[in-house]
Amino acid sequence: ASTVNALPTITGTATTVIGGTSTLSSTITGGTWSSSTTAVATISASGVVTGIANGTTTITYTAATGCATTVSFTVAGPSIKKSGTITAFTACVGTATAAQSFTVTGADLTNNIVIAIPTGFELATTSGGTYTTSSLTLTQSSGTVTNTTIYVRLSASAATGTYSGSISLTASGATTQTITIPASTVNALPNITGTL
């Protein structure tokens, strides 16, 4: 005798937020749950899905018969995206360098994006605007920060030496993004000697 087994049916809400949970169930009990991308979401033996990061994963329920059913599960939540790279700066002490830039966007935010800069550098939202050596805040509106250009340069107040580090972009619940600034140099001014 040969048997054709029924496929399990997965029920429940196939979405959650980062750090949130959603419980899935199957019409056939006694099987096992799995997630194809555990970096996005994990699932317990009882069908509780926990959101880890933005993205989509495939949840599979396999019955004891070996028959399996899948469902696409989406995790949404605050996100920051950045674009652009920074190359090394070189300056003479007392003079700021020309600015370089990168862009930032944010979605599904619950708080503003804060941009922190390493020592020796400064930030602005316009190339000829007011630069700050402390953090810069991008205010979200209805959870969104539209594409914003950020300008960075070596500060005129930086002493002679080498500076490097990472610019960090943070917001509550979002994965922190970073932009590396390679080793940059502030050179001393030459001294002129002799009878003037």
Question: Could you explain the architecture of this structure?
Answer:
The protein has 196 residues and is an all-beta fold. The protein contains no helices and 18 strands. The chain has a five-stranded mixed sheet, with no helix packed on it. A four-stranded mixed sheet has the order 2-9-8-5, with no helix packed on it. It is elongated, with a radius of gyration of 26 Å. The model has no long low-confidence stretch (mean pLDDT 94).
List the helices and strands and how they pair.
Layout: E1 10-11, E2 15-17, E3 21-23, E4 25-26, E5 32-35, E6 41-43, E7 48-51, E8 55-62, E9 68-76, E10 79-83, E11 90-92, E12 100-107, E13 113-116, E14 121-124, E15 136-138, E16 145-154, E17 161-170, E18 177-187
Parallel strand pairs: 2-9, 11-18
Antiparallel strand pairs: 1-4, 3-7, 5-8, 6-7, 8-9, 10-12, 12-16, 13-15, 13-17, 14-16, 17-18
